[in-house]
Amino acid sequence: MSEEKLYAVKNDEGKWLCIEAKGCHYWSRDDGDFFDQHDADILAHVYGGHVVELIEKPNPEVVSKAEAKMLDKAKTASYPANYISMHAHPDPGANGTSYDELRLMRALVNGYTVAKEKKYNVKVPHTKEVWYYKSGDADLLAICPADKKLRGKFTESEIEHYGLQDCEKEEVTDDEV
């Protein structure tokens, strides 16, 4: 294929060219056959229609929860790009546009997923196998034995909130959550 790009041929009725043993015809399906650019040009000329370059959907940007909330507001703003520009974290590049601003613009256009916050088990200092956990109301801390199922899963912000930054912590994997 030319430059590793794919092309298809579509007619004015929105049908895609499909080649089968009995010849070429247009299908009303959502897809047709793929060609290199040269073959697509020839087939479009012979059978009518026009060449359509197919591109891969870009991967969605990974954003934080706060950025996702901001992007949701930007979607409904009169000027989404201005909204993002005003709320992106300042880290200006050579052209005065921040890296975050450009990343968030891509997220708005290409889609985004919210990053999973890492979670940690936090060990009580000066003990062998005692770990913190959050009680039911999540404002109280208590101590539990080494049983991993009983340990609390703390985010970085919770660790900071409870003042546990200096404690030993161990990241919790998805299968432990």
Level of helix content? 25-40%
Structural class of the secondary structure composition?
alpha+beta
Q: Ends: how far apart? A: 46 Å
The portion of residues forming beta strands comes to: 15-25%
In one word, what is the shape? elongated
- Biggest sheet strand line-up: 1-4
Sheet of most strands? 2 strands, antiparallel
Output the number of helix runs.
5
Low-confidence stretches: none
Q: What's the order of the H and E elements? A: EEEHEEHHHEEEEHE
Number of strands: 10
What is the residue-mean pLDDT, rounded to a whole number?
Answer: 78
Structural write-up:
This protein has 177 residues and is an alpha+beta fold. The chain contains five helices and ten strands. It has a two-stranded antiparallel sheet with strand order 1-4. The chain has a two-stranded antiparallel ribbon with strand order 2-3. It is elongated, with a radius of gyration of 27 Å. The two termini are 46 Å apart.
Give the helices and strands, then pairings.
Layout: E1 6-10, E2 16-20, E3 23-27, H1 37-47, E4 50-54, E5 61-63, H2 65-76, H3 80-87, H4 99-110, E6 112-114, E7 119-122, E8 131-134, E9 141-144, H5 156-161, E10 169-172
Parallel strand pairs: 5-6
Antiparallel strand pairs: 1-4, 2-3, 7-10, 8-9
Helix pairs in contact: 2-3
Short structural description:
This protein is an alpha+beta fold and 177 residues long. The chain is built from 5 helices and 10 strands, in the order βββαββαααββββαβ. The strands form 5 sheets. A two-stranded antiparallel sheet has the order 1-4. Strands 2-3 form a two-stranded antiparallel sheet.
